[in-house]
Amino acid sequence: MNWRCTRCGKPHAENDPPCDACGHNSFEKAIVRVDEESESGAGSDGAPDTDREPIPSGTVETGPEYVWACPNCGREHVRNTPPCSRCGNPDLEQVERTYEGLERDLETPSWFEVAKPYLPVFAVLGVVIALFATGIVPLSVLPGLGPPSPPDAPGEGSEAGGLDLEATEEEIHDRLEDERDDAESRTVDSGLSAYAEYQNRRLVEREFGDSDPESVAADEFDHACGDAIPQEVPVVITAVSAADYTDESALAEAIAAEYRSRYGDEMQTGFDAEGINVHAAPNGDIYTVYATC
Length: 293
Known about the structure:
Elements: E1 3-5, E2 11-12, E3 27-29, H1 34-41, E4 66-69, E5 76-77, E6 93-96, H2 102-106, H3 111-115, H4 119-134, E7 159-160, E8 163-164, H5 165-178, E9 187-188, H6 190-208, E10 231-237, H7 248-263, E11 273-280, E12 286-292
Helix pairs in contact: 5-7
């Protein structure tokens, strides 16, 4: 044997790949040791056989590469081992392997082609992030994120008797600020305002609703009090309604006056920030909670 498979080493009489043992498509000249050459390669008179081809130093070009293909589905197999592993066809035929389209198959797709199937998902995520970033949807709707959402409570929390209750809260702050000097000035803290709203709605719900909302701690709200413990005080103005006041300023003045009469100097000194919530109960009473730290 003058040829052998470069993969499994099986000898072959001719340079006619593929290997019938492993299907490899590259043969090389079988290298013969000197002692074997002297025994089998010399003539009867002991002279070297000059008719034999010289042994090359490396592998040889084997020409086209062949595979065994299924004529039914086209699946290629390294060896002639029917049936077809894809469709079960009992016959395979030897065909020349071509590499047409290989360059196209190996081209790296662009990031857009990779991401294109996921564009609807990215769009939805972008909308969700925008809703949270703009505050249209509060983080509190996600479990474990953001401060507790205020409980539902009967009555009105945004407008009552034609008055804007949120504007009234701002007016209350302005009324109290007018009586403070610069050293005692307080800022409106959104975390304290959220805490005051929760506590106020909880108070109204317990009084007029049919549930008892769970108690919360001020630390669950994103306030700027640091290590200071926020203080809150409820004030209820009875026997009146929001409709009894001409505008938000008049209602704010009545609530601020009630604060001052009940808590005196504590409403003016010793704190840096405050939050206020106003809620009109179903019976017309004005419920407020003032939180500060």
